[in-house]
Amino acid sequence: FVSKIPYQVFVTMKDCRDIQIEGYKHINRSLHGDLVAVSILPPENNKKRVQKKKIEKNPDKSDSNCDVRETDNSTTDIIDDDDNVSTEVDVVDESGVEKAENCDDVKDSKSTQEKRRYGKVVRIMSEKHPSEYFGVIHAGKFNPIQERYPWMIVAGNSGAECDGKFVTVNLTEWTKDSRYPSCEIKAIHGGIDSFESQYFALKQKNNIFHTENFDDSLLESLPQRGWVIPEEEISRRVDLRDNLIFTIDPPTAKDLDDALSCTRLPNGNFSVGVHIADVSFFVKENSLLDYEARERGTSVYLVTENIPMLPRILCDALCSLHGNVDRLAFSVIWELTPEGEKISEKFVRSVICSKAQLDYGKAHEMIVSPEKFVGEVEQDCVAAVNDLNEIAKQLRAKRYENGSISLDNAEIHFEMDENNEIISVAPYIRYDSHFLVEEFMLLANISVAEKLYSSFHFDVDSELSETNSEEKQKNTSNLGDESEDETGAAVLRWHPKPDERKLEEFAKQCEGLGLEVDCTNSQTLHKSIQKIQEEMDGPRMEAILCLATFSMQSAQYIATSGDVPKSTFHHYALNLPLYTHFTSPIRRYPDLIVHRQLGAIVAGEKQNISRSLARVFVKNVMKGSEEQIMQVEIAGACI
User: Fold this and answer.
1) Mean pLDDT for the chain overall
2) Are 559 and 618 in contact (CB under 8 A)?
3) Mean pLDDT confidence for 497-525
4) Coil, strand or helix at 63
5) Per-residue DSSP letters for 112-158?
6) Nearest to 211 by CA among 318, 286, 300
7) What DSSP designation does 212 have?
8) 80 confidence band (pLDDT: 50, 70, 90)
9) What single-letter DSSP state applies at residue 431?
10) In contact, 632 and 206? CB cutoff 8 Å
11) Which of 14, 497, 545, 564 is spaced 20 to 30 Å from 25 by Cα?
């Protein structure tokens, strides 16, 4: 039972399309997370309902017409009343699209809306919803900060006494003669005008319940600061410590999970490497720390603090690719032409030693004023950064030519004083160095996605791989007589097509402003937006980008299947057949899974995650990571 807004919910079912439930009467006192039994409404009821009057969220009145039964032993009796009872209900947003819980459910929004099913809850099989809720007291009533839950009636006079304060309440009961549940106040957190209270509320609303502290039991198996890579581990890896490798990050960054290298070759091409922290060496699959990382899903970056996915000893020290220390990495190395064409690629576990720790500003200076840098290492970095920048420009231009779309909104930078008071707000400036890093991280993610898919399905043209035919034979022999399910499934990042109705609305809004937009595909949309950008700038352009973003669906993680075509996994925003997340394992759990999958492929080992398990994993584990990522990262939602 999944709710985004009270009385506008979906019931998710294994291997079936979601069932939409409309109105509090059909929801039958069930809440988000509950396991419920649902009766499918007749097809004649599966038409769009006409909105007569929206239900007010504020529970100033109880509704004696509500015909639901008392809950007994975590179940609700079956409803047999007439469906034509005069009850006003909320209209479900037409933009709702069924979730693709497995590959067979990947459809465009138009086809899924035509097949949408409607139902009503007839029994609560198991109450899985929380017992505690956080929110604010308003006019003596409790308003949950998460809108998926309904308003609640506060027992006694405590509601009036706590008016205008954030509180935690316990749900006590939900009787048959009330549209709203009852609750009692458990804790008071402060007024809504308090910074501390608002900060706490922000984290509660976005399901950020963990802190930077980890239980001691999770740290017992980890090395301590000063740990040195064992020689036997070095012998199993490609030693790149003598190569010129460097990082480019924000000046305050501590969790440095990616580094770059670029060397000119005698034939005029370049050997370019993306080197990612090998977190999987320290976080073993199914360990206690692995479970904790799964639960957290992602690191959370707030204005005044960051809450890591992994203990500080890993994310800020042993995994972080700091300068002049040996680190374990997973490297993707290409031979590229000056125009960015791939000649070859390889994937290796490596040992690196970053020679320079650059920030975006310094890397930008190396591009615009290379003569300022005179040291030997700095001069080497200047040459490498400028070579990478020229290749990145080629990659970026080709990406947009091939239909990739850019909807980057301006990011806001806050400057705080020692008391966490805001002293200035300004747009975050992006340099060429930002785009340089972005292009090569994209290239690494694309290459890894292709490698995973070709290794599992053998139908991708992988002749770029230096050991393609040998690895296919090795992987095939490892499978033996195992069923297709046991071959595993590639974990990819899928971005579905936009909602067609919302795209049409966006085009009409632009037309009303005298702007022409072609929404045929991502390529035509990108060109239209670029043309508009030539005519306007500043706040108006930001508004246009926001309107375009509203029509987009959210990207999600998906497990591949051999019984559907490769085109099923197409990434709309990038206009790519395959894409995944590989480059941020310190701060994003799905990347850690991809590292494990790629590591097994490189080593010729059997995958630990079967295809069926991968699907369950994507649905139950990575869905949580995905929601966390969406909640704590404002920019780059489609990538």
Assistant:
1) 79
2) yes
3) 86
4) coil
5) HHHT-EEEEEEEEEE--S-SEEEEEEETTEEEESSTTS--EEESTTH
6) 300
7) S
8) very low
9) -
10) yes
11) 14
The predicted pLDDT at position 112 comes to 44
Buried b / exposed e over 450-475, threshold 16 CB at 10 Å, is bbbbbbbbeebebebbeeeeebeeeb
Using an 8 Å Cβ cutoff, are 455 and 597 in contact?
no
Distance CA 246, CA 457 (A): 35
Q: Which pLDDT score is estimated for 33? A: 85
> Cα(515)–Cα(542) distance, rounded to whole angstroms?
15
Q: At residue 280, what is the residue type?
A: S
Tokens, residue 358: 């650059």
What pTM was estimated for this model as a whole?
A: 0.78
CA 581 to each of CA 63, 108, 306: distance values in angstroms, whole numbers, following the listed order: 49, 23, 21
Confidence of residue 270 (pLDDT cuts 50, 70, 90): very high
Q: How far apart, in whole angstroms, are the C-alpha atoms of residue 548 and residue 407?
A: 7
Radius of gyration for the chain, computed over Cα atoms and rounded to the nearest angstrom? 27
Cα gap 298→585, rounded to integer Å: 9
The residue whose two tokens read 């005298």 is 514
Q: Which of 339, 577, 318, 337 is nearest to 445 (CA)?
A: 577
Strand 326-336 and strand 342-353: the pairing is antiparallel
CA separation for the pair 367, 385 (Å, rounded): 7
Distance of CA 468 to the CA centre of its chain: 31
Asked if 309 and 591 touch (Cβ cutoff 8 Å), the reply is no
Looking at the chain, how many residues does it have? Answer: 639
Cβ–Cβ under 8 Å, residues 326 and 333: no
